[in-house]
């Protein structure tokens, strides 16, 4: 399973799903998933994220809770972890991430990857990356699709086409900054034939990428 949908869109997808397919997305999430992964998806689908400015004192408290959740990993700590990531405002979470770095000396994404695994881990990382910087999230998804899943074609095509007229240039920049190789380079290395040519045409590239 791949967590691709931007979390902020999930409430609108619930409505679209019901109007178009007469299907209740929350019911499907409840029946098809389980555990803390399900609880986090349900929280996102309800669209209860707060709005407003950041509170430094609350941010420090939230960062400490996140740190404890990455250390102890009890059910209660997992609940608190997903509640903070799903319900705090984006401004608040930016400050929480900074406080977490100060407290732990570690980036929250790295801490989550070290402490959790499976679908729950994927979803938590997706939330953090989307809140922090959406192009970085898509760069992360592309890198995983190219390197970790034997070139997951649907994911690569979906992201390149969906973001081609939005922020693909920025995604390319984030990709190269994070992974040291350009997106163009990796597509050329792992794809072939007409499929490679089509992807490269969408991706484009800088002179040094060729």
From TrEMBL:
GO biological process entries: animal organ development; cell differentiation; tissue development
GO terms assigned for molecular function: calcium ion binding; calcium-dependent phospholipid binding; phosphatidylserine binding
Keywords: Annexin, Calcium, Calcium/phospholipid-binding, Repeat, Signal
GO cellular component, one term: nucleus
Pfam families tied to this protein: Annexin (PF00191)
InterPro entries (alphabetical): Annexin_repeat, Annexin_sf, ANX10
PANTHER family: ANNEXIN (PTHR10502), ANNEXIN A10 (PTHR10502:SF100)
Family the UniProt entry places it in: Belongs to the annexin family.
Protein name from the UniProt record: Annexin A10
Organism: Phasianus colchicus (Common pheasant)
